[in-house]
UniProtKB/TrEMBL annotation:
Transmembrane regions listed in the UniProt entry: 25-44, 51-71, 117-135
Entry keyword annotation includes Transmembrane helix: yes
Record organism: Bacillus stercoris
Keyword Transmembrane: yes
Protein name per UniProt: DUF3899 domain-containing protein
Record keywords, A-Z: Membrane, Transmembrane, Transmembrane helix
Length: 136
């Protein structure tokens, strides 16, 4: 019976991890959609740069939000590992993240990690190149 409690607890944590990963994936999709839409409105013949500059705002916002979801995912992965090490009588179904877990990761470091930089830097580069095209 105690083993089933531990398995249920681990399943709860895994569901949170899955939800965070899904949110991160959706944010990347929204980022591309918004940037492409705003660049399409920019009309490259007349190059209305207002739409191009406005495209930077959601990219930076979504990058930070994506970093938050990845940060949360890492925290819950650590909680998952800690629960695996718990004795069966210590299972309490708490989703509170201890200070030890929180101190192991930093939102800013996750946001500029090798996981997110390869996606968001090229998107920002495309926006900046589109902004510079009329000057050429």
């Amino acid at each position: 019976m105690d083993e089933e409690k531990k398995i249920r607890y681990l399943e709860m944590i895994q569901n949170i991890i899955t939800r965070m990963a899904s949110n991160s994936f959706l944010i990347k999709g929204w980022t591309v959609t918004i940037v492409v839409g705003l660049l399409a409105f920019a009309n490259f013949k007349e190059m209305n740069s207002k739409f191009i500059i406005v495209a930077l705002i959601p990219v930076l916002f979504f990058w930070g939000l994506d970093g938050f979801y990845l940060y949360q995912e890492k925290l819950f992965r650590k909680l998952y590992e800690d629960v695996i090490d718990l004795q069966l009588d210590e299972v309490n179904f708490s989703m509170k993240l201890s200070d030890n877990i929180k101190n192991e990761f930093n939102w800013w470091n996750v946001t500029i990690s090798k996981t997110l930089l390869p996606f968001y830097l090229p998107v920002i580069a495309v926006i900046l190149i589109a902004l510079l095209i009329p000057m050429i």
